[in-house]
Amino acid sequence: MDSPMELNIHHHGTPHIIHVPSSATLQDLTSEITNVLNIPVDNQKLLIAPKPGMQKAPFAPTRLNEILQTSSPKFKITLLGTPAKAIADLHQQSESEKQRQEARASALAAARRNKQTPTSRRSGGVHTISSSSNNYTFHRLLPLSYLPNPDRSLDFLKRLRDDPGIRAAMAKHKFSVPLLTEMNPAEHTTSESRTLGLNRNKGEVIELRLRTDAYDGYRDYRTIRKTLCHELAHCVFGPHDRDFWDLTSQIEKEVERADWKSGGNQLSSQEFYNPGDWDSVQDGEEFVDECGWTGGEFVLGGLQGDSASSQPGSGGALTRREIMARAAEERMKRETQTRKQDDAT
Fold first, then answer.
1. Cα gap 186→11, rounded to integer Å
2. Phi, psi of 49 (to 5 degrees)
3. What is the spatial distance between Cα 17 and Cα 36, in angstroms, rounded to a whole number?
4. If you ran DSSP here, which 8-state letter would residue 260 be given?
5. pLDDT tens digits for range 95-150
6. E-strand spans in the chain?
7. 3-state secondary structure (DSSP) of residue 4
8. pLDDT at site 286
9. Distance (Å, rounded) from C-alpha 173 to C-alpha 37?
């Protein structure tokens, strides 16, 4: 007789008991998860601790008793994935929101043409609309609401956006980024590497790894800021070639020089989790990114209720088109406010 094996699978903070035979494979486990939780195999990611780490589809036919260290006090299986019904509902909501945003974007474009507002586009894909330094910033900040303390993540993103060094560098290079968001560590961690940041489509979206792997704190601020300098350089250059590294070095120096608040020193020990983070990057234990990511549609799936600095309480999935429409709307609001202030004076 093949005695059953009882496993606790943690999904969105809730444990679920899954029974499989003792001879079951990793493929058998994912099939049983589909039967119990209605999460398609292709949508499943299993973070198995302490080893072998993150497992993704297609799953190997490896026997579970060969890879699961059930006797370890650190043993835990975390499931990342969205049920099929939730995905269908999300797609329906996204389509409705897409139609509404397309109508709004058309109206904004018509308004700009009527006012004959001068527009420009910097080569390299960075989106800019006027010479005002107020436009050279991150127009929307988005923490991940399904992770602990999203308000603290939003404060962290605001600090990066308002950092004097970052603001000065973005204004000098005319960087205008529609969306700055945090990265879920579990989705960008393997047993061999950790990714610290991503730049999608040369400045449309920048993702940063704010949290520790255990979700019990936040990483060193200066490490995250260095990662942000790296990702800003990808707004111009995709590959990690000589031009890219020269620009990255230039941005880092500009950020340090303009950081009048800290003068290049640590701001507050209470705001740092691991001051040695950047050493692990230099030692090759972590990777800033895998060059600029280009192509496709960036969708923040299932993040209903996430907060944003420009539109608090807005939610739903955002495609590239929707991100750009929101960014354009915010820029027009700022330009209108600036004109009103000029008229008043």
1. 13
2. -115, 145
3. 9
4. T
5. 888 888 888 888 888 888 887 544 444 444 444 434 455 789 999 999 998 888 89
6. 4-11, 14-21, 45-49, 53-56, 76-80, 120-121, 127-128, 141-142, 179-182, 197-200, 205-208
7. strand
8. 56
9. 48
The closest alpha carbon to 210, from 193, 199, 223, 201, belongs to: 223
Per 3-state DSSP, what percentage of the chain is helix, strand, and coil (rounded to 5)?
Answer: 40, 15, 40
Helices and strands (H and E) in the chain: how many: 9, 11
Which one has a higher pLDDT value, 287 or 137? Answer: 137
Model confidence at 158, in pLDDT bands (50, 70, 90)? very high
Known catalytic residue at 271: no
242, amino acid identity: R
Single out the catalytic residue among 231, 286, 322, 335: 231
The answer to whether the bond into 4 is cis (omega within 30° of 0) is no
- Spell out the SS3 assignment of 166-225: HHHHHHHHCCCECEEEECCHHHHECCCCEECEEEECCCCEEEECCECCCCCCECCHHHHH
Phi and psi, residue 337, nearest 5°: -65, -40
Q: CA–CA separation, 3 vs 6, rounded Å?
A: 10
- Distance in angstroms (rounded) separating the CA atoms of residues 49 and 3: 24
Identify the burial level of 325 via C-beta atoms within 10 angstroms of its C-beta, where 0-12 means exposed, 13-18 middle and 19 or more buried.
buried
